[in-house]
Amino acid sequence: MNDLILHFLDVGCGNMTLILFPNGTTYLYDCNVTDDNEDDVLAYLGKVMGRRSKIQAFICSHRDADHMRGLRTVHNAYPIGEIRDPDVPGTTTNSPEYKDYMALRREIGARTIEARTKLEIGDATVRYMNAADESLSDANDQSVVMKIEYAGSGVLLAADTSFLPWKESILPFYSDEKLRANILLGAHHGSLTFFDDPSDERNYYTSHLLKIAPEMTLISVGSNVWDLPDDKAVELYEKYSSGSDKGNKIYRTDEQGNIRLVLKSAGGWSLTGNQ
After folding, report:
1. What is the pLDDT of residue 244?
2. Quick count: other Cβ atoms within 10 Å of Cβ 22?
3. What's the rounded Cα separation, in Å, for the pair 82 and 163?
4. For a designed S-S bond to 22, which of 2, 151, 190, 255 qualifies (C-beta 3.0 to 4.6 A apart)?
């Protein structure tokens, strides 16, 4: 068997994760290609895609501009076979990025992701732990939370979820084993909403992080006006991430640049920044 490789691209305060499955399938989870980073992003994709010339599926965690901006640019270089998302309107429906995404979605075809479903891609398992939910009013909370499992290791991508879907829609339906992940992509670019439960004025919500029990937490973030990542959120990720064998607990794209994660076919994982 070959390794499963994920590339967390440095695309500012947004998200873009390329997933190279061992059987040759390629997924892209979110996209944030801008005029400023387009050349660097395409050059990096060209370097790491190797002989792969297509992206079988684009997974849009939710329809906010910083998670699907510039997708057509990627599609022109590496044709995308299908778009998959939770089919929930985003918060930027009047933006040109949103309109271009929806037009491309109609052109190449789309499939709706449903919560608590899974699929096998070769020897890897993909779990969609969260998606559209009528009980949740916030589009961010209906983001696609995706977990990838391979050769005994796992990585969990938390999208822009707050504490709420974890408390009400994810933890009640998954065993500790299914929730456990070696690597966590922290929610919403390091926002405190992942922990801040208004109903609890004394304690931050950490039940989800205790179940995930990550060794390393990654934060996809860049220059922004919201002062992300939040200092308290970083403190909590530090506290509840056990750390790598080198003592690292958090990697940030604004500090480590493009980050490469390898889930090894023989077991274990490796994480490398500044790619």
Report:
1. 86
2. 18
3. 30
4. 2
In the structure encoding, which two tokens stand for residue 71, read together?
A: 């997708």
pLDDT digits (tens, 9 = 90+) for 185-204: 999 999 999 999 998 888 99
pLDDT in tens, 103-159: 999 999 999 999 999 999 999 999 999 999 999 999 999 999 999 999 999 999 999
Q: Does the model's pTM come out above 0.85?
A: yes
| Domains observed in the chain | 4-272 (3.60.15.10)
Provide the residue type at 163 as one letter: F
Residue of 133, 141, 132 lying closest to 163 (CA atoms)? 141
Inter-residue contact 209 to 235 (CB < 8 Å): no
Q: At CA 259, angle to CA 131 and CA 254, rounded to 5?
A: 90
**pLDDT, tens digit, for every residue of 52-92?**
999 999 999 999 999 999 999 999 999 999 999 999 998 88
Tell the residue number behind the tokens 């440095």, with chain if given: 10
Q: How far is CA 242 from CA 145, 146, 233, 249, 254, in A?
A: 22, 21, 16, 7, 22
Distance CA 84, CA 41 (A): 22
